[in-house]
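Sample A.
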Amino acid sequence: MLAYNKQQQQAIYSLSIYATNQRAVLLPKLIAGAAVPTLRNLTRTTPRNLRALALFLRNSTELQFSTLVDISVTDKLLARGRFSVIYHFLSTSNNQRYSLQLFAKETTTIPSLAAAFVCGQRLFASASWLEREVWDMYGCYFAEHGDLRRILTDYGFTGHPLRKDFPLTGFTELVYNDAEGRVVSEAVELAQEFRVFHL
């Protein structure tokens, strides 16, 4: 078990305490809920309030979460939204991590943290690559992203491979064609009928 001194504990729990105890006064409508598990702080928000809360995390003199480390997505098919999108932040000055979670449907537009402000400065420069990866794998659309294109799959690829409704075999496969002397893309032919299981 990790042991923290009093000052480190205050740095870890400051946003969660701030969010849960004083949100009605200080951060109205930005936070949908907060949780403080043993080793991870998590705050739930909505896509509409994501940029404001991320700006608060970055610019707060106490918190100083200046680095966006990762964006993780889970395809859950929940009533609140199909995708659980979690932003992972790092404060190098406090040596702490924090997570912001939001739920998005297939048609939900998520505001980009890579979009430039009026002055031309980005909120988090690392978000550009991470948002492209999420869009490529899951199809979550990020508004005002300047370069939202495929990053891990081919440009002609159809669909988003990490969605639960994407077939395991895919739609096309690359094979070497002896007649043409090159690699070509062909439609996948299954040996048996594709079956749909209703759970």
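Sample B, a different protein:
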Amino acid sequence: MTIYNGFIVFLIKLKTKREEQIIMDGNNSNLPKKENYLNLTNLIISISLILVVYLLYTKLTYPPQPFTDRGLLMIFAGTILFALVFPQYKGIWKTIPIIALICVIVGSLWVMYSADRLAENFYWAGEYDFYFFVAYFIGVMILLQYNLGGKIVSILSLIAVVYVFVGRYFTGTFSLPVFSPQSVATMVYTDVTKGAFGTFLSLTSRILSLFLMFSALLVATGLGDLIKSVSMLAAGKAKGGPAKVAVISSALFGMMSGSAVSNVAATGSFTIPLMKSIGYKPTTAAAIETIASCGGGLAPPIMGLSAFIMSEMIGVPYFQIIVWAIIPAALWYYTTFLYVHYSSYSQDVQAWEPNKEELIKLFKDKAHLLLAILTLVITLVVTRVAELAALYSLISLFILSTLRKSTRLDFKKTKDFLLEFGKLFSTICVLNTMLGIFVGALLSTGMHFKVINLVYFDVTNWVVVLFITFILCIIFGMLVPPFAAYVTVVLVASPLLTGLGFETPVVHMFVLICCVLAPITPPVAVAAYTAATIADTDAIQTAKEASFKALPLWIFPFIVFRHKVMIGLTDNWYDLVFWLAVMMIGIFIFSLAVNKYCFGRISNKVMYLLIGITIFIMQPVSAWVSTLGVIMGIMALLVTYKNQKKIVPNIN
């Protein structure tokens, strides 16, 4: 085995047992194993039920004091996450998660008890607060150790907190003043705006909890079956039908979940075997599902956690983030659809005929659930307040689900809803408190400006800065969830890029799009690893094919950065139409090239020529160069069409 392959194997082994279980078992994977299954599952259901009642009550009435609210959420989330990770420990080691849970509960109860004192002292920590922070921090780290992203965020947070103490011993750029334990506790524990109980937990309580509840309820009432029926009715009979079903279903499911891995697990378990059955290569089937699923992080109206965090960080309504994401999301799925379409010709896939009568019956039985999604979109447009939109859509979904027996919440579906919601909420809530600690240490000490000097080497050329930022997004995005990668990178990159004269929304959208691409990227490629496991093929080959076939998506963030019209930030409709046409033409030609199909089979030489023309078209610097590239592309297509009438060359 080569050194490279050995390194790849090492990175793949970073996948935790729990993530592998998610891949194999889908939504039920986070449940405890059969040992202690009944008691722990009942604990999760009970805590989730109390949590749902508490969240709805506080949203419909007056919200509690911030520390009280966030402390209770962490107690609920910590208990659920404890129930999920406890079966992973054996023998005497079972005391570790118990100690971790006690630490989290004690740390949460302490800030709740100290809320009035902290408010009177402008949230400055007292004599004993630091010791409670240490216990809380250790407890959270232990609970997150079976989550790969949580483990990385924990390490980053630990480094940041330790650096606050040892920075006094550095000289030059990386030196820090002396911070007392009370000062550190204020930065990362008792501040109401940043730290463990700061903005990120506030966001979880105010907005994310409702959207997670909405998503879990949609799944419990039959969203998966509805998405399958809609997708197969729309594209089932088309050329490469199951692959197009994968694109449509992944887009619809991704709108609700925003998670690449859960998207692959939910839709890929159905679409990947179908694609393989009609002739798609296993690697191609897995790559298609990977690209389609990763787009969920950009697909309105939910877009995943990153969009909510962006709204908080730059102070714009969530609805505005949705508007900015419309064109990027549309081009993402346009790229995926063309890849699917022309790969069906190059691989000679068989025709497939879905059972139309059964699908229509299924659609009619559950179509009323779509009104809840329509409610979400309308209330977002009318009120432009994410909290209200989520609350109204949640209420409407519950009412709609009672209209038919097939969607009505019986005992089993209620349990499924509570388990799904508890699993989603606990992981995100605990991740957010750790992310808050990291951000609190970073911002309070100005550490992010020091990281800028370390990473960017005092470079002021925007092209170099942008490329380094792109690399940072991919590296962090491979190791942690996209929202955590987005926060980490944007805190470092935004001050530098905005200082060079670029607008804040453009910088944030660039970082977000790059981080959404990261789960495709080898060697870690979390989403590709998930899809490859379902397809029973090689994960690295899947990631390589997905990355290569999605090459236009790698160029698109740079076009957004150079031409803000692509996210609707100007009223210049000419520029919008021009660059949208450039992207669509470039993606079209590229899709023909990588699938070696242009009015028939094409040779490698023609493929490389068309790829070169595509890059020429989609370069983000000059409109004249792109125009020349479009002309060259049209001429190349005409010549290829003419030659195909004479002879169909063999693929080399």
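Observation for Sample B: Residues 262 and 431 are 17 Å apart (CA to CA).
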